[in-house]
Amino acid sequence: MLPAAKDNGEPGERGSWLARVTNEAYARDPIDSVLRFIVSDALKNSDSVDQETLGTALYLSPVGWDGGDAEHGAYIGEMVRIDFMDAFDAFKPIYLKRGIPEHVVHEWRALLDKELRGISRRIFTRWHSTWARARDL
Q1: Domain annotation covers residue 10
Q2: Which of 49, 74, 99, 101 has CA 20 to 30 A from 60's CA?
Q3: Angle CA(43)–CA(46)–CA(48) in degrees, nearest 5?
Q4: pTM above the 0.70 mark?
């Protein structure tokens, strides 16, 4: 996992623009506030959930590349890249509201797009999945 990229980072400094724009979008929420933890805990504590059916899994998806030997990896990688770019565009009003100048948001978008195309580095994103069935009440 790479740290968030810096606006004026040193040449060759390791940092991720995906991490940076995500941190900016979510105002650096503490890690424990992330929904992936809340959903699982809520289901564990629910009387209406059949606990024997409660499960979680972690999936990795390539972003902007084929993922090596992943089945349908090229399609998945391109779809995830498009989704992340669309999410960035959807968060643009939030960045502007937080006082980030429009020209900076434009620069971030270009840097994010370059990173997500898998040209300078190949990245995966993690998807946390939680499922369960309702108990018969």
Answers
A1: no
A2: 49
A3: 110
A4: yes
How many domains is the chain built from? 1
Residues in the chain: 137
In a domain, residue 40? The reply is yes
Which residue from 90, 68, 67 is spatially nearest to 80, judged by alpha carbons? Answer: 67
- CB atoms under 10 Å from CB of 39, counted, come to 16
pLDDT digits (tens), the chain, 137 positions: 677 888 876 666 788 888 888 888 876 555 555 666 678 888 888 999 999 999 999 899 999 999 888 889 999 999 999 999 999 999 999 999 989 999 999 999 999 999 998 777 888 888 888 899 999 86
Handedness of CA 49, 55, 60, 61 (dihedral sign): negative
Task: Print the domain residue range for 102.
Answer: 17-134
Cβ neighbours of residue 49 under 8 Å, at least 6 residues apart? 43, 132, 133, 134, 135
Point out which residues pair with 128 in neighbouring strands.
58
137 CB neighbour count, 10 Å cutoff: 5
For the record, the structure tokens of 53 come out as 């059916």
